[in-house]
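Hi R.,

Here are the chain sequences for the assembly we discussed:
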Amino acid sequence: MRLQTVYRRLFDHYGPQQWWPAETPFEVMVGAVLSQNTAWGNVERAIANLKAASALTPEAIAQVDHDTLAAWLRPSGYFNIKAKRLKNYCHWYLAQGGFAPLDALSDKALRHAVLSVNGVGPETADDILLYAFQRPVFVIDAYTRRIFSRLGLIAQESGYETLRRHFEAGLQREPRRVALFNEYHALIVSHAKEHCRVTPRCNGCPLRRDCPARAVEPG
DNA sequence: AACCAGGAGACAT
DNA sequence: ATGTCTCATGGT
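And here is the predicted structure of the full complex:
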């Protein structure tokens, strides 16, 4: 089955997703770090804390002391390490001069720059590139691996870069790649939450005709 | 009451 | 290059 076919089925079933759920590019960046291996609802609580403290700015996060920041981040889990990572990111972001100078970089240069921040790995970097900078990178996450390996379209043991290139190459000829990659990743997350968790819930799954996992829970 | 959630880094091998 | 640990809250 082609990647385009999976996309069409997901879109027809779930509709447009309107991602990323954030009001500004900087909020996307913060959410990208806080969402590492964490349920999104918990991320929202932490971001609400930052907003309530008027601290959802790179300056505020860079300047506040560790314990205060960690307390705001508490609901999103890993609050000590995420406080460090967020501070790392904000110090770097301010040192670069903020959004505009970074936005002037090429896709490749920007990705390399964002990845240089300690605490920003490949998925977090690609969240930031796609959803904050509108660059055509395909985000790979645990859901993507799970769904497409269950469909038999990828090997589960493939590394991040291998998978990213596979998706980007498979969708190379599509028009409006940024909008497509944006919507595709969001649809993957919505689909995983409803039907493709660790223990699959295949009843009503729009991909079940082609998914071997349906045998686990006949639907 | 285990299991899971929109990962990444440090470290050893 | 690849495998194992750690980090931690909140919902199911």
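Residues 31-32, 35-43, 77-78, 81, 85, 118-124, 127, 139, 141-144, 185-186, 188-189, 192-193, 197-199 of chain A lie near DNA strand B (CB under 10 Å from a C1'). Chain A has a mean pLDDT of 95.

Let me know if anything looks off.

Best,
T.
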